[in-house]
Amino acid sequence: MADRPPRKGRQTTRMVVRQADRITPHLIRIVAAPAEPEDFPRFETPYTDAYLKVVFPLAGVTYPEPFDMATAREALPREQWPVLRTYTLREVRPETGDLVLDFVYHGDVGLAGPWAATVVPGTEFHVAGPGGAYAPDPTADWHLLVGDESALPAIAASLRQIPAGVPAHVFAEVGGAEDELPLETPGELRLRWLHRPDGVSLQEAVRTAFNSDFPTGRVHAFVHGEASAIKELRRYLVYERGVPLGDLSISGYWKQGVDDEGYRATKKDARAAEAVEDAQHGLVEAR
């Protein structure tokens, strides 16, 4: 193994939990800081969809110390590599050196939610990143932000950067009224909460709201959430409403019935299918 060229890996940062709170029945907010304060500047990013990969070591596996993803992947077979889960930074606090992450919690289901329910101040964990690609364009005439719980951290961060008085249409899907969160913006907020038991999908809500009154001017849109719902929203916005791909940040954060690894494995094929469909509609913009 030592004679093989090193695999590419992600640099990881050791984090320490400062605070953990259940802010709604299905959302746990963790405030954490780099164990080494000099690591904090790498998390200051211009993107409002900045995300981290939270590292979950496998039980029963001994990892090289000090821990790093690249080292772990070089030293161990693939089936023993740590599992990664992606979470958007809701907030970066330069004044305190803290990062804020929100975890959706549905009891013992999944990996990250149950872990988040157990952490206490002093708990250590590792993250890789950040990544990111989107921030609201201050020159846009209006903004559209659409998503479920998985997109709410990015939506909240994005709203804080929308210029004063600029319309911001938000469609947010959650489990119920008890899962709604305060959202604030200098812009003109037009917020619609969708409660999942009511049976109105994000795509239906957006289409109904704009059926005969699609705002004029250039929109900059951020649309993320469950993959199937996002696929239909993409078709509506791009093919029916003519939103240029360059003015649209859109993709599925997750897919119903598929874990993170399985969903990542299908993303390449999904993007290829989108490219074919775009070509059929005469769209040739760079993706």
UniProtKB/TrEMBL annotation:
The residues covered by the FAD-binding FR-type domain are: 10-137
Q: Which Gene3D superfamilies match?
A: Nucleotide-binding domain of ferredoxin-NADP reductase (FNR) module (3.40.50.80), Translation factors (2.40.30.10)
- SUPFAM superfamilies the UniProt entry points to: Riboflavin synthase domain-like
Q: Which Pfam families match?
A: FAD_binding_9, SIP
Name of the protein this chain belongs to? Siderophore-interacting protein
Q: Which PANTHER family match?
A: FERRIC REDUCTASE, NADPH-DEPENDENT, NADPH-DEPENDENT FERRIC-CHELATE REDUCTASE
Q: Which domain of life is it from?
A: Bacteria
What the entry lists under InterPro entries is as follows: FAD-bd_FR_type (IPR017927), FNR_nucleotide-bd (IPR039261), Riboflavin_synthase-like_b-brl (IPR017938), SIP_FAD-bd (IPR013113), SIP_fam (IPR039374), SIP_rossman_dom (IPR007037)
